[in-house]
Amino acid sequence: MKTHLSSIILLLIALVCISFLYNYPDIWTLPAQGAHVWRQSDCVAMTLNYHQFDLPFLEPACYNLQSDGGRVAGEFPVFYFIAAQFDKPLMALRVMHTLLLFGGIIAVYFIAFHFLQRRLLSLFCSIIVFTSPLLVFYGNNFLTDVPALSAVWIGWALFLPGIQREKPLLVFSALLFFTLGALLKASQTLQLVILAALLLHIGTQRARAALVLMTGGFLLVGSWYIFAREYNQTHHDSYYFLSVAPIWKLSLYEMGLGIWRMVISFSKNYFWRPTSIVLLLSCFYLIRNWKNLDSRLRTLITGSIVVTLFYILAFYQKIIGHEYYTVFFFTAILFIMIGIIKVYNRFHAENVFTHAFMFLFILANVFYCRSYTAEKLQSTRIHPVLADKGMQDFMVRHGATSDKHILSIPDASPNITLSQLQRKGYTNFNFVDSLLQQQQIDFVVCSDTTAIAQWQPYLKEYKGNYNGIYLYRTK
What we know:
By secondary structure, this protein is mostly helical. Helices cover 62% and strands 4% of the residues. It is built from 21 helices and five strands. It has helices at 5-21, 24-27, 37-53, 78-83, 89-116, 119-129, 133-139, 145-164, 168-184, 191-202, 205-234, 252-265, 267-270, 273-288, 295-314, 316-321, 330-348, 352-377, 389-397, 416-421, 432-437, and strands at residues 406-409, 425-426, 443-446, 461-466, 469-473. The longest helix has 30 residues, at 205-234. The chain is elongated and about 80 Å long. The relative contact order is 0.12.
């Protein structure tokens, strides 16, 4: 570790400086907004429910009452629960996810060094990963996709030297991180398949023992998702997705659309497009020099590509509409990138000019990433008044306390506005007419009076207006 101390210090300095360029400290203070604010708000809702209602860990819930009491379970909510113990849970969640991302970026350095044995090139590999808008945006966010990937990368960074040097503690620690990644995002369980392929390739007694130990990770992950499915069924949840969305259920048009999205539309999210083109073209040289690569690296590249293809087939429908599903691709991208740099090092090991150009190239990627993540952050704005403290005081003053059920409109999502208002209730996502008829709603919060015209007969009393947000009593 001492031999890497100067490199890690340089990497940390780079991460901190680049983070300031990306405005990470400012973003930490923001509520859910930007790309896929719908899904972000689901994570926020679960975190705030732990915080607001002091829920036990195994009783996660959100604000929308489409299930009994809003009780729902999805990904393993360990970070939601921990963040909820802080006075500012949303900021705590963003910071924890960011720190885990930093851990993943540092892990990339060690993964790369394991195969490259060059500190400078390993630094390049780790920093270039931190210029991916997809990882940078969702790494400082509420979704668990990038934290799960980061945990898996830490697992690889511990496992590779651990299995090579026969260090059981490193191998065991690695399996814990692989398991954490799979708990945070079920699809990361497929990383254990790559790990199993590598262990079978190594074939030593220690590797076989690790393979047996790995089954414990499978059982733990499986146990959580079995619990989550039963928990949702018990509480009549019909929203949380705990299954696959395979390609064979789609039309030819949707299949073509998926290819277009992954290859063209979403390509802005992976890297600066010239970088992606360089990586694709470099694959030609990777294939030409395939036999010169370390056999373990070849196994990892092949295994990660096969697993990624299987993932695409299994989650094709989700990938079409959610670019954050492509976060899974990055383990394959990482191993391919290491292979490409390994080939580059074979022919340009001492070429100072190309090394310098590579690091200058990073700067262009950093500024592109800064621009595009800022664009993603502004793509969907939330109503600023709903989360205002004055709005909370206004609602409490007129009887809409935290124990009352509200209808928040217009809002097509389950939790966006409810999370801002921090109230249990309903939105346009639910069957509003029947809920009003059954008197399941105490108050209506509305930011557009035209959206409530059809339900005027159910409104008993107009309570007031706070900066363009209207409050009505229904009972």
